[in-house]
């Protein structure tokens, strides 16, 4: 049990690494003071451009994947793999290095899912991509694709009920972190993905 708790704690610290903030700081920009103030790749894209956004996206995905990889390497069972992944997502959302503030967890969640339930991860990315291509709203893509995540897991990984439960928790995390986006989408004031800060 000690190793399980250590892995959960390590995943939280790993998830807390704010790649968006680091990328922006290299450019001399305080990401929390530009655009939406969010630390994720979408705000980096608006505020700094394509390549910094790609670096941020890769970093945020990688920390979710590495967290689950640690659990797999240690041989923990699926429930603890899921909890380790959730801890990394929580770290991103409530970063240890940002006074327990952070992002919305989309990229880190995808990183977790890529190892935890790969086919559901790919379907989630596909749904997100289609929604964004049609609407140009990154937030709407996240809201729809993660709302459908439990169904995706049920269809593609239905032999493991634990993964379905974990996917419900991940989807809930995403929806809670996107409450402001949902309000702006309803009001018609949400920014589209191509808009500069």
What can you see in these coordinates?
Helix 2 (19-26) packs antiparallel against helix 4 (50-74) and helix 8 (138-147) packs antiparallel against helix 10 (161-177). The mean pLDDT is 93. The protein has one domain. The chain has eleven helices and no strands. The chain has 197 residues and is mainly alpha-helical. The protein has helices at 2-16, 19-26, 41-48, 50-74, 78-93, 106-116, 118-135, 138-147, 149-156, 161-177, 179-187. The longest helix has 25 residues, at 50-74.
Present the secondary structure layout:
Blueprint: H1 2-16, H2 19-26, H3 41-48, H4 50-74, H5 78-93, H6 106-116, H7 118-135, H8 138-147, H9 149-156, H10 161-177, H11 179-187
Helix pairs in contact: 1-4, 1-5, 2-4, 3-4, 4-5, 4-6, 5-6, 5-10, 6-7, 7-8, 7-9, 8-10, 9-10
Number of distinct helices: 11
Order of helices and strands: HHHHHHHHHHH
Largest β sheet strand count, sense and barrel closure: none
Structure class:
mainly alpha
The dominant shape is globular
Note poorly predicted spans: none
Average residue pLDDT: 93
How many extended strands? 0
Share of residues in helices = over 70%
C-alpha end-to-end distance: 46 Å
The rounded Rg comes to 16 Å
Report a brief summary of the structure.
With 197 residues, the chain is mainly α. The protein has eleven helices and no strands.
Salient structural properties:
single chain, 197 residues, mainly alpha, 11 helices
